[in-house]
Amino acid sequence: MREKAGLTLYNLCLALWVGGIALYTFLVTPALFRSFGRDTASAIVDKLFPLYFPYILIIVCLALGAFLLSGWKRSARPRLALTSLVVAVSITLCVNFLLYPEVRKTKQEISSFEKTPADSPARRQFRTLHGISMALNLLLLVDGIALIVLGSCSKRES
């Protein structure tokens, strides 16, 4: 019973993890930047980030807990899945507590993305940090998809 509940929660967490990242990255953010000026879209995204990053952290941590609760038996490669989950938790912790605060601090130095020159030091720093953030976000997406695939393979094998 505990294992079945753990597996169900694990699968739900993976769906919320991958779906949340995909929705935010490929639908919400691009729609905002297509619909509004850069400064307005940026201000809206700034309101979402304090919800988005903790959401991903909580879901990833819950997925790890559920995986452990499930007894690992239904995973095709339990060590690979566990490693992927630990990497995801590590990334989300770094993003939440190291990268995102630095991005916020740098962004406060930019009064307007529409008026501040692209080659200003703050804009260059922001671009670098934003690039790192985007790469880590995509890595988390791929990690979550890989875990779903691993889970699918194990169901066919069992």
Helices and strands in order:
Blueprint lengths: L1 H34 L2 H32 L8 H31 L12 H37 L1
Q: What's this, in brief?
A:
This protein is mainly α and 158 residues long.
Could you characterize the architecture of this molecule?
The chain has about 160 residues and is mostly helical. It has one domain. Helices cover about 85% and strands about 0% of the residues. The protein is elongated, with a radius of gyration of 18 Å. The model has no long low-confidence stretch (mean pLDDT about 95).
- What helical percentage do the residues reach? over 70%
Q: Could you give the count of β-strands? A: 0
User: What does the average pLDDT come to?
Assistant: 93
Structural class: mainly alpha
Strand content: under 5%
Overall radius of gyration: 18 Å
Q: Which sequence of SSEs, written as H and E, runs from N to C?
A: HHHH
**General shape:** elongated
Contiguous low-pLDDT stretches (5 residues minimum) are: none
Q: Give the tally of structural domains.
A: 1
In this structure, how is the largest beta sheet organized?
none
End-to-end Cα distance, whole Å, is 18 Å
Q: Tell me the number of helical segments per DSSP (H or I, 4 or more residues long).
A: 4
